Amino acid sequence: MTLFFEGSEKKLEIHVCQTLGDLRQLGRNFWHALVKKANADIISSIANDECDAYLLSESSLFVWHDRFVLLTCGNSTLVDAFIFFIDSVGASQIRFACYQRKSEFVSQLQASSFAEDLKLIKASIAGKAFRVGHLDSHHHYLFHTDAPFEDAVNDTTSELLMYHISGDMAQYLRSDRQTATQIRELLSLRALFPSFILDDHLFSPLGYSVNGIRGRYYFTIHISPQEQSAYVSIETNLPLGEYPQPIFADLLKLLMPRSWDIMSFNEKHPDEYFPAHLCLSTCSIATSLGYNIHFSHYQQSCTEVLIPEFI
Amino acid sequence: MTLFFEGSEKKLEIHVCQTLGDLRQLGRNFWHALVKKANADIISSIANDECDAYLLSESSLFVWHDRFVLLTCGNSTLVDAFIFFIDSVGASQIRFACYQRKSEFVSQLQASSFAEDLKLIKASIAGKAFRVGHLDSHHHYLFHTDAPFEDAVNDTTSELLMYHISGDMAQYLRSDRQTATQIRELLSLRALFPSFILDDHLFSPLGYSVNGIRGRYYFTIHISPQEQSAYVSIETNLPLGEYPQPIFADLLKLLMPRSWDIMSFNEKHPDEYFPAHLCLSTCSIATSLGYNIHFSHYQQSCTEVLIPEFI
């Protein structure tokens, strides 16, 4: 059996009340304890005037004065970090929370199902949950609080999730001669994200993560290139519709995934520069809070010749 | 949450040595005990000179003098029936065995994973196992014995697995005014399968199964129309390449699935009459026994507008 790694992430975004003070002042020990609850560790960090960005053993954490985004992959237990945060600051200090689970390759290996997570969450904080996408295909679970939250519409996030990358770049990412510097160059991070501070890490035996921040903006890329479970994600709060570089289209052309998803919040990502594809399914959700979620699942338009995996 | 049912089947096909005698003589009690091991029950049966066909609470069982095919859906434990059969007759009496698990909608709800099944099987009988299809999309697990078996190449089977049926027929199958007679007519079973003896059953609240036999030929159709996990399968040992009716194409046009798989043994099913589609992936496997397996995963060529499922 080939190497397997569950690259797909769980994600937690929380916005807090002003009365709680600056989240960044909670200090590294607090955030260390939080990510520990998710079974992750802090590897390194960068900071600017607006944001602390932590690179984790399982993905990333970004902390601003009034919000944070925590992404964890593998068999992490992000729901425990969510509950830990609620217990630490009190549910009344949370203006908005969103907990998301993306399609997992092997959900049986996860510590819990979304339904089990939801039971824990709803015992601590009120909200709504749904699934978008068919169970036999890419699908995403999402919980969000439903208390009034007027800022929601200004909060833009775009996620591109790429499955089964192929071609030269994929081969390079699976080789044993790769370096972080070389990956950064091949991804053209300097061109795509000028003026961003970068922090990256090459995992052993495979895998690469990078965080980037500029002012209040962030992006994060996580690469799990393992042959049978290849997955690459990028997430950013940059307003991609107005951004000079077609970041997502460029990455699709470089990484040549067999299929990919776009999940975006308050931004419908244009797909005209994407490689030839069929959009298998799409969904637009207007939440009760006033913000909009768009989901689209794309597939390359040529037939893939599969190789059986012997077990 | 809408009604959920795991329609996707596990399948066991076993061919025995002549020295074991006629499998049909093992009697209904033996087969009753076998299907009980899989957590299923016999509802009814039909027979002709060549074959006994049992309709089960979870799919179907077909018994010929030297072989049987057992299909079970839901949370059935088919691997236990496999082990029970090996223990009952002895591994040396088994000329060929094939154990298959299709993509499951919610694999976490299953009693075991394929990996766990495989551990049990390999402790009782030698063979090879593989997966075809990506983990984040339709995929199939298959174990087969690898002892020499010269008849394998004459054994033809075709399976069509349809996901997320739509249109009038799907609506009818989800209604509370349906009858078995009406479903049989709408499926045009008399025209598609002339001279077959039929045995069918309408399940409560939803679901329909039908077995048909003619001489040594069989077909079986199982319909789980539940909105979020709609799944319809047909399987037959008819030589579809030479058959006058384009059975699979007709059913695709009637049931309008969003996606479908073809799994065939010693027969590559022609897809020229299929509704407009993209073939997402395909795989041909020449087994060490000399028989060939073909897998293809199709998707309708238009974009589906998804509706989120609130949980």
Give the topology string of chain A: H per helix, E per strand: EHEEEEHEHEEEHHHEEEEHEEEEE
What order do the strands of the largest sheet of chain A run in, or round the barrel if closed?
A: 2-3-4-5-1-6-8-7
Q: Kindly, what is the distance between the CA atoms of the first and last residues of chain A, rounded to a whole number of angstroms?
A: 5 Å
Global morphology of chain A: globular
Q: Which sheet architecture does the biggest sheet of chain A show?
A: 8 strands, antiparallel
What percent of residues of chain A are in strands? 35-45%
Oligomeric status of the shown chains?
homodimer
User: Spans of chain A with pLDDT under 50 lasting ≥5 residues?
Assistant: none
Rounded to the nearest angstrom, the radius of gyration of chain A is 18 Å
Please give the number of β-strands of chain A: 18
- What's the rounded overall pLDDT mean of chain A? 93
Structure annotation, total helices of chain A: 7
Could you say which structural class the secondary elements and strand pairing of chain A correspond to? alpha+beta
**Biggest interface between protein chains, with counts per chain?**
A-B, 47 and 47 residues
**Helical fraction of chain A:** 10-25%
Short description:
Two copies of one chain form a homodimer. Chain A is α+β, with helices and mostly antiparallel strands.
Q: What are the main properties of this structure?
A:
homodimer; 311 residues; alpha+beta; eight-stranded antiparallel sheet; 7 helices; 18 strands
Write the layout of secondary structure elements.
Two copies of one chain form a homodimer.
Chain A: E1 10-16, H1 27-37, E2 42-47, E3 52-56, E4 59-63, E5 67-72, H2 78-89, E6 94-101, H3 114-122, E7 127-132, E8 140-145, E9 157-163, H4 167-174, H5 180-186, H6 189-192, E10 197-202, E11 208-214, E12 217-224, E13 231-236, H7 247-255, E14 259-265, E15 277-286, E16 292-300, E17 304-305, E18 309-310
Antiparallel strand pairs in A: 1-5, 1-6, 2-3, 3-4, 4-5, 6-8, 7-8, 9-13, 9-14, 10-11, 11-12, 12-13, 14-16, 15-16
